[in-house]
Design the sequence.
């Protein structure tokens, strides 16, 4: 079957290890289901895998991709939850949690096999392309906002780095949930798009906000860390799920954190139950993922290059 996969690992030139070509089809195994992939979406996790983060040489070649929507062996339209080993279903009881592409082959292929427990019904109102955007970036944003930040309708939230998959999802989900959302971006066009998507206002990184916020959604890391901490009200919550600009800020702002009793919460992906809630949220509210573009699987390299350059706004989807 045709697939996009990591053939080599190169921390400095990650795309040099990306190959497109034939790979073995999944082999049936007890407790697992084979999904015929209709659409899959790219995440920064895929670039990190090509750099060797979370993916070791012993697992190469590895088909990339965490997110997918398609049909199972019985013709059911499904969405793949990409956290394997969370519950013990389909794996050993002591197996640690991993994401697809760290140990098991991923979704950038004509077929993918996962534990049957990891499949959720695709809502009829969502296209395969839309559904394929949800299991990683949108699920991450959902958990950051509603589980770890604990915000309520009427609260205010700062989303750093408008344009990225998680940040874009946080803006759309926050608006739909009745939050006052502020966003930042270095790019004026992205700031304008953030407002179009529902942000109350958008600012250059480091700009003073109209008021301090209840929570900050942080995925940028070192470049925005100090601004994130300074933007919180006393007792506010900073939720971080990534550090695309690096994980070593010049100033940790420890004094401000303890003096104002701020909360810093790490967040990674989300549970199957949260993904089910997110799917229901989208179906009932009419919220839909922001898609930058849809490319056929054989043009996956083009999508990876766009993601690596940071030119996208929303999700890049591969149609199979």
Sequence:
């Amino acid at each position: 079957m045709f697939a996009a996969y990591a053939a080599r690992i190169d921390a400095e030139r990650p795309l040099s290890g990306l190959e497109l070509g034939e790979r073995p089809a999944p082999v049936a195994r007890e407790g697992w289901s084979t999904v015929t992939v209709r659409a899959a979406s790219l995440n920064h996790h895929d670039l990190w895998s090509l750099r060797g983060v979370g993916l070791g040489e012993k697992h190469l070649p590895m088909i990339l991709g965490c997110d997918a929507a398609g049909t199972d062996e019985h013709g059911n339209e499904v969405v793949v939850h990409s956290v394997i080993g969370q519950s013990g279903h389909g794996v050993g009881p002591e197996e640690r949690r991993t994401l697809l592409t760290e140990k098991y082959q991923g979704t950038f292929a004509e077929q993918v096999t996962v534990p049957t427990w990891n499949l959720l019904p695709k809502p009829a109102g969502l296209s395969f392309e839309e559904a394929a955007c949800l299991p990683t970036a949108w699920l991450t944003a959902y958990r950051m906002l509603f589980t770890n930040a604990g915000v309520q309708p009427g609260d205010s939230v700062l989303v750093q780095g408008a344009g990225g998959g998680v940040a874009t999802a946080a803006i759309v989900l926050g608006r739909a949930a009745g939050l006052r959302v502020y966003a930042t971006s270095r790019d004026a066009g992205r700031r304008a798009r953030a407002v179009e998507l529902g942000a109350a206002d958008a600012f250059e990184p480091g700009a003073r906000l109209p008021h301090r916020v209840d929570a900050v959604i942080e995925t940028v890391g070192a470049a925005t860390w100090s601004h994130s901490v300074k933007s919180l009200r006393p007792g506010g919550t900073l939720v971080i799920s990534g550090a695309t600009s690096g994980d070593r800020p010049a100033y940790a702002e420890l004094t401000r954190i303890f003096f104002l009793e701020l909360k810093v919460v790490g967040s990674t992906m989300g549970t199957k139950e949260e993904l089910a809630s997110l799917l229901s949220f989208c179906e009932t509210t009419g919220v839909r993922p922001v898609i930058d573009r849809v490319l056929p699987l054989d043009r996956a390299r083009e999508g990876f290059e766009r993601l690596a350059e940071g030119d996208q706004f929303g999700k890049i989807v591969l149609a199979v």
The radius of gyration is 19 Å.
